[in-house]
## 1
Amino acid sequence: MNQIITTCCIAGGGPAGMMLGFLLARAGVSVVVLEKHADFLRDFRGDTVHPSTLEIVHELGLLEEFLKLPHSKVRGVSLQIGDDHVTIGHFEHLPVYCKFVALMPQWDFLNFIADRAERYPGFDLRMRTEATDLILEDGRVAGVRAKASNGDLEIRADLVVACDGRHSTLRHRAGLKAEDLGAPMDVMWFRISRKENDPAEVIGHVEGGRMLVMLNRNDYWQCAYVIPKGTADEVKQGGLDKFRNNVTGISPFLGDRLEEIDSWDKIKLLTVMVDRLRHWYRPGLICIGDAAHAMSPIGGVGINLAVQDAVAAANILAEPLRRGTVTIETLNKVQKRREFPTRVTQSLQIILQNNIISPALAHKGKRPRAPLFIKILRWPLLRRIPGRLLALGVRPEHIHTRANVMPQISGIRRKSLTHV
Ligand SMILES: Cc1cc2nc3c(=O)[nH]c(=O)nc-3n(C[C@H](O)[C@H](O)[C@H](O)COP(=O)(O)OP(=O)(O)OC[C@H]3O[C@@H](n4cnc5c(N)ncnc54)[C@H](O)[C@@H]3O)c2cc1C
């Protein structure tokens, strides 16, 4: 069996794992990131890079290059609930460099971070490598067992960070218990071609019994059709014609284009969950991102919260990792720092789930109305509050880690792909 010895082993190359790996390598910490897939090409993980994340990219001095990647800018968010059209937040008043949400495929974001991270000698990204178990020694986590394409691998590390998402293998192996906060919906995810004269913004439309969110990806719409939890089989039994009719009933301009959905294979079911660990750590291991707190897609804030967790974790852990002085108190500091923003954000998501999504999905045929707390957002000053919460979140993080290592200018792109 191959063995690697490193300072920090991160399981999961999503927004949390890639950002943490990058920041630690930049601060001079040796880090191995394990990602089970061969690439970052997955449709279903959201595309929203919020002002809080753009601010981080700016603080890292990478914003100009980052914004050269294809993206569209969203300067406010509106919701159509039955006949009520409400702008629920805008971003122009925010005290940040980018007063917009950049809509960018998540694989572009992750490839960008991977490319910059690989310029640091301490960064080792291992694609097609799945963390399968923890190495336990004297009651503490001493590393990770993994399955790579060329065989089994053992990674010994001073600290393991579980960034392996909502179905985290490592948090399960560590015996950490999550509190299920409940989600009333699942999402059916599909693409429809986009025409030049289609609207440009993100569209969120709630009708009796149905809800559709459409993300503009330039030449196509990434559509999220929201259904009551556990009803995917029922929707499928209703047949594709009924499904297509339901979608055009909400967004008539899609009309004949829905013929593109000619098979259920073109529709992916994504189950939504909202949960939170009571304890995010045990000796030798900590969870961050969705592995610590699965987020609802509401507000599209999950990626950004995962990035904020990574920034906070790097701020707290980089120096102790360099000096070999990480203790249980150090890990507790990370949980303390990030638990409050997580709790507030999840509470807001649950308020929206219970007051907009659940009633809308339950009232089949009846046109829903916007609840009062949404209608009062017609006052521009009040609209600033959700705008700020959505864009910056609670307790925004800033980069405090130092760049202790010089990046190598000629990229050594995907070096670990050739290792495995
Ligand atoms: C339907 C839906 C839509 C969403 N839309 C948005 C949105 O528009 N905007 C937004 O901000 N958030 C959105 N979210 C939430 C967002 O996807 C998550 O909160 C965010 O991706 C969490 O980042 P993460 O890095 O913690 O985990 P993930 O993004 O889940 O990344 C985990 C990574 O670990 C890898 N992995 C898993 N297990 C292992 C293993 N054992 N070994 C090695 N690698 C492993 C996975 O392949 C993955 O790359 C959405 C969620 C859902 C369900």
Note: The first strand starts at residue 2 and ends at 11.
## 2
Amino acid sequence: MSNSDTEPAYHYHEQTKHSYQSVRSDTHSLDFSNQPVPFKTYPGLKPIPLPHPLEGTEITALSAVSTTTSPTKEKRIPTLSDLARLLYFSAGITRQKDYPGRTLLFRAASCTGALYEVELYVVCGELPNLSAGVYHFSPKDFALYRLREGDYRAVVAQASGREPNVVAAPALILSTGTYWRNAWKYRARTYRHFGWDNGTIIAHLLAMGSALKLPTRLVLGFVDEELNQLLDLDVQREVTLSIVSFGGMSRKVSEPSTKLEVLELPTLPLSEREVDYPEMRTLHSATAFLSNKEVALWRGETPIRPLPAPEGPVWKLDPDPERAPDSIEKVIRRRGSSRQFEHKPISFQEFSTMLYCSAQGISADFLEPTEVLLNDWYLIVSAVEGLPSGTYVLHREGWFLELLKEGNFRNEAGFLGLEQRLPADASANVFFLADLDAILKQLGNRGYRAVQLEAGILGGKLYLTAYAQRLGATGLTFYDDAVVEFFSPHAQGKSAIFLMALGHGKKGPF
Ligand SMILES: Cc1cc2nc3c(=O)[nH]c(=O)nc-3n(C[C@H](O)[C@H](O)[C@H](O)COP(=O)(O)O)c2cc1C
């Protein structure tokens, strides 16, 4: 299968759409007796505990989210304590909730259904207090488990087509997605969730990288098989999704000298039995890169079509990135998805700050130049002071909102967000829509991964910029075609990718 034959991406997208009819004809029920555990466990390996304390950057969340740490020629080597912070504040356990007979452990970044299908691995050279190796991060006991001893960064550098940030990085965090852990509930739609749920984690990694002053870069172009082998993955069940590089050094990593040893490390089963959804593996193969040549061809200018010039009234954003003093760590600790919203309006400045700080460019190999994004921002505004209720589109190049249609669209927002109360009650909803035709034409099937991942990152940033201002947020799923129809004719031809609801969260219990 080739990346440029994009039929598989279109097919998957179409097959996994939600609609009013599809939800009503769905007979799937959850088998709680066979629910997968949310942790990967290697029974044969010894834990290497990660150090506390974790707080301490004193960088505000708004600043950490909106600033990218550009690559530098300066030497910047993360310490073990930096790594512990990166891992904890992206995928660590930050809260627990007790229910009769069970306890739910919530993580730093949001995740569909709290099923936590994304695992993190560290590949590093010699670091202060950590020897070179390939490690699995275990949030359960906040520890690393060493899969390979020695410096394997060159394998990642090679797989990435010698992407300069990867080549110069003392440490890399690789994310993987485990199909069954999320498919237990969401079945084939899980492949979209890989992008969203990895995206929220990456939003936190980028923010923490910025707070720790570590040059940080997201890399999505790599030869898949080489990284899957490095991480000893059973690719029928788990696959590599992304690389994030941290830090920089002048000395380039050396070429790998030996072939990778096959490890086949035993891991504990996730549940008694697993159900396979082969359509996801088919799509994954179609999005995979088989050679460095494909990786090189993939990079270049990002395929975006600018929004048409505004035809309706416009409102210039009025952001204040200094308005919230809380540090990124403090904000991540209190983040959680709002389970109910009040109808109380949010101020125009709060709203502007969320949009402005979350919509800055992302340092990623599929976004060239850095300012561009694959997703467009369409909004339903229901309660923002000084802004007429209605539908809008965000023009990032001038930081203004264009009014598309004035009116009260709370009922429509609720319907589009899969008939849930949350989008109906929210002060505003951000719908991420993308021009899949343009993206797939240039980026191939891999572009499908990129657009879902980017939407998850933007959603993760909105969570953080909302909670920084003591507001609430939640990610949501949606009725695909109804969303596009609702925002048409402006959004004609685009596809719905992700939805975030924003507002004043109500305190539980509900
Ligand atoms: C991509 C994404 C989609 C989500 N979709 C919904 C949704 O449709 N309805 C809902 O109530 N919550 C939704 N959530 C919220 C998750 O259920 C929540 O993140 C998860 O339970 C973990 O809780 P926390 O965010 O409070 O840590 C979504 C979250 C994400 C990241």
Note: DSSP finds 18 helices and 17 strands in the chain.
